[in-house]
Design brief:
Length: 431
């Protein structure tokens, strides 16, 4: 977006917010009016909703020569007819061409997205030390519209009251004006006090995963300590011991970082704190959308994209545990291979060491290839890649945030009307 277009967009956004406030005020002040005024206010709200939707779409999805991730996001994850035709022209079947095209888009889409978000060095760090599933989960949390904390509008009634508000089933009329009638609706906090459901679920997932990594890391460490006492280890290649020592170190680090992550996540007591920790900024989406000085492409992108340190912090225990398991399995392969080639186990039968090594390689290869290929193919075909997650969350942003802003504005004017009413009562008491 060029500077002129950005200036026009900022001015347009300010006009939209101003019209939104005026329309909401009119809607609240004319609540006792006829059905015609209410329908007009509803129509204006729908129009403002569409304006804000179009504005967010233009800010997020306009093509940029500097960031190719927006084009990947807009095009989607599935292979186009032109791409399938280009692959088919090289002698591939349509099914193979479609899979190859989706694979290339899955790989290059992830590289382009992370390069545009975190620069080349950050993209390398994400590829080596970050987990794609963690990044997708954090993007899902940041795109969820419940950000400032919700309050449930309830009526305070006595236990066992009927819909009319009377205990014991006494009739009280539709408005609850009888004995024991309900009071005016009150804004009360949610049942559990943690009002942001998306942030709450993310916090629980991270804590459960950290507990799992702690247990698995301790188990791997005990296996490695036992493996270091195997026979003929000093006579085999030194790389076997080096791999097992590396596995022991990474397992201990995984256990430590898992416990540290539980402590860090546990100190976040609200959804807003969780989102601020993921973004590494206290700026909220509401502030960006309502402040002309903050409304630009970069800030909107940062609101739904997690910061690199937060992704690496959450990914660290799982990545270290996977590395520990990999070093352990490679060490066993080297150990069994040199027992066979150097004929260290002289008491074994003829070619027994070779057969054991072959069985180990076959079982390990089958398990890894089958389950890894299935998981990898599922990510490609279901659109669960980086750019696919960003596209889905951007669609959620365009669909749900305008409605959420309208609800926040409506709640604001309701609270403002309640405040003015209480102020009027206080003034009357003083008189």
């Amino acid at each position: 977006m060029n500077p002129v277009g950005l200036s026009l967009a900022i001015f347009s956004m300010s006009q939209i917010i101003e019209e939104l406030n005026v329309t909401t005020a009119k809607s609240q002040s004319s609540s006792s009016g006829g059905q015609t005024e209410k329908s007009e206010a509803t129509t204006q709200r729908v129009q403002l909703n569409q304006k804000l939707n179009d504005y967010i779409q233009s800010c997020l999805l306009e093509p940029s020569s500097k960031r190719r991730w927006s084009k990947k996001l807009r095009d989607g994850e599935k292979a186009t007819d032109e791409e399938i035709a280009s692959f088919s022209g090289h002698g591939f079947k349509p099914e193979v061409a479609s899979t190859s095209s989706n694979l290339s888009r899955w790989i290059f889409g992830k590289i382009n997205t992370w390069t545009g978000l975190y620069r080349p060095l950050g993209a390398v760090a994400m590829s080596l030390f970050g987990k794609q599933s963690v990044w997708r989960a954090q993007v899902e949390v940041l795109s969820h519209p419940i950000q400032l904390g919700r309050y449930e509008r309830r009526s305070r009634r006595n236990p066992g009251s009927d819909p009319g508000g009377n205990p014991g089933g006494n009739p009280g009329g539709p408005n609850g004006n009888g004995n024991g009638a309900a009071r005016d609706p009150q804004w009360l906090p949610g049942d559990d006090g943690f009002l942001d459901q998306a942030a709450k679920e993310f916090k629980e997932i991270v804590q459960n995963e950290s507990n799992r990594v702690s247990v698995a890391g301790a188990m791997i460490a005990s296996v490695i300590i036992t493996a270091l006492g195997l026979d003929f280890l000093s006579q085999s290649h030194w790389s076997a011991r080096a791999l097992w020592i590396s596995s022991l170190v990474t397992a201990l680090l995984a256990t430590y970082y898992a416990g540290d992550l539980i402590w860090k996540i546990g100190r976040l007591f609200s959804g807003r704190q969780v989102r601020a920790w993921i973004r590494r900024t206290d700026v909220t989406m509401i502030q960006v959308l309502q402040d002309d000085s903050l409304m630009n492409r970069t800030n909107l992108r940062d609101m739904i994209c997690p910061a690199l340190p937060s992704v690496l912090t959450v990914s660290a225990p799982g990545v270290l545990l996977a590395a520990s398991l990999l070093f352990l399995l490679l060490g066993f392969g080297v150990y069994l291979g040199f027992i066979w080639t150097r004929i260290l186990d002289t008491e074994a039968g003829h070619d027994d060491s070779r057969d054991v090594f072959i069985v180990y390689i076959v079982v390990l290869s089958l398990c890894y290839v089958i389950y890894s290929a299935a998981d990898f193919g599922q990510d490609i075909q279901s659109g669960m890649s980086v750019s696919g997650a960003l596209a889905a969350c951007t669609e959620k942003l365009k669909e749900e945030w305008p409605r959420y802003i309208l609800e926040q504005e409506q709640e604001f004017w309701e609270k403002e009307a309640k405040r003015l009413e209480l102020r009027h009562r206080m003034n009357s008491l003083k008189m």
